Amino acid sequence: MIRVVSLFLICAAPSLAAEDNTFLLRGATIHTMAGRDIQNGSILVRDGKIAGVGENLSAPAGVKVIEAGGMQVYPGMIDSASTIGLSEIGAVRETSDVAEIGKFNPQLRASIAVNPDSEHIPVTRANGITSVIALPDGPGISGQASLINLNGWTTEEMEVKRSAAMHLHMPTIGGSPGRGFGGGYGGGRVPYDEAKKTFEKDMIELNNFFEEAHRYSQAKAAKLPGFQTNLKLEAMLPVIEGKTPLLITAVRERAIRDAIAFADKQKIKVILCQAIDADKVSAELKSRDIPVILGPTLSLPGEEDDPYDRPFTTPANLYKAGVKFSFGTFSNEFSRNLPYQAAAAVGFGLPKEEAMKAITVNAAQIWGVANQLGTIEEGKSADFMVTTGDPLEEPTQVKQLFIRGKVVDLENKHHQLYERYKARP
Prior knowledge:
Blueprint: E1 4-6, H1 7-12, E2 23-30, E3 38-46, E4 49-55, E5 64-67, E6 72-75, E7 77-82, H2 120-125, E8 129-134, E9 141-149, H3 155-158, E10 159-169, H4 192-222, H5 231-240, E11 246-249, H6 253-266, E12 270-273, H7 282-288, E13 292-294, H8 310-321, E14 325-327, H9 338-344, H10 352-358, H11 361-366, E15 384-387, E16 398-403, E17 406-407, H12 413-422
Parallel strand pairs: 1-5, 2-5, 2-6, 7-8, 10-11, 11-12, 12-13, 13-14
Antiparallel strand pairs: 2-3, 3-4, 6-15, 8-9, 9-10, 15-16, 16-17
């Protein structure tokens, strides 16, 4: 016997659809992000995986049916850089676990510090974001970024990719944005000669640390007598072996070129992070197949002599150059605005389809999980949202959200406060 459930009934009573993670959703326009849109389409989900996508799919016996006529279905969005779960209240130090002391902390993993009960999680997923990169921060090598989904009782349950990348703040000079090793240099307060010496010292330390990791790898492979495990160097092995990318925060052109040269020297995989000036070196990035995680588009220019629209035009310039990119909010409270960061670039030359791809399929490809996330295709995790329209447009409402095939309660603190104060006398 087939049980039919109304989408709007589910929104009123989430527990009704939460009995299991097997169902057939039908009647919606499905934007697969992997090909053409499917009008009046259906998605069959079995045990949290997408078992079929298309037209006129029938529900197997005993499988509940969710009617979604008139709705739009999109893949869940991915925030490629956030502090979700790592920081709750910025002004309260005890609630922040984003950074640790020291220049080299590759053994630290972000996912282990994520708070599954963070109030930012339900607020973020209510706008259609299903996965985020939890990004450790701090000077030097701050640790391993983790890709997590936004539903689960424990950090282990939330993990999608435990070690998605190793994060490095590239040493900088001359007051460039980004902290580098020493919290930024110059800024009009440090003499250039002194700033340059500090920069050169930091680069020597960074190169020496990588060389030490190479020697450690050789000693481990040779099984030398008396070999002792070093947690810091052990964590670096996937990076120097090319299995885990190095996520390098390099904002301005000079730092980006330094990052590219460093990657070439060490022969490692690299992802650029917060690279506002990436389009100035787009040819080099394209030739090396280096992707970019862009910061918020809705922001001011980084330097006083930058064009006013610098953050808005960079995505379109990278697209025209053939450089793969995604967006990160680099925050907890504003991760919910991810689709609008992508949408802001559309008015400055980025095709609308590419803006949506940047926060779905592109992000999944950059983080090495395209076989699991980013599109609505058979065999992938059932992470998708049911909306009233285009997620890039602010009036659009997310009516239903699924993560690994489970319906997610969209109730959140923002909605609770809205309901409370709209009735205030």
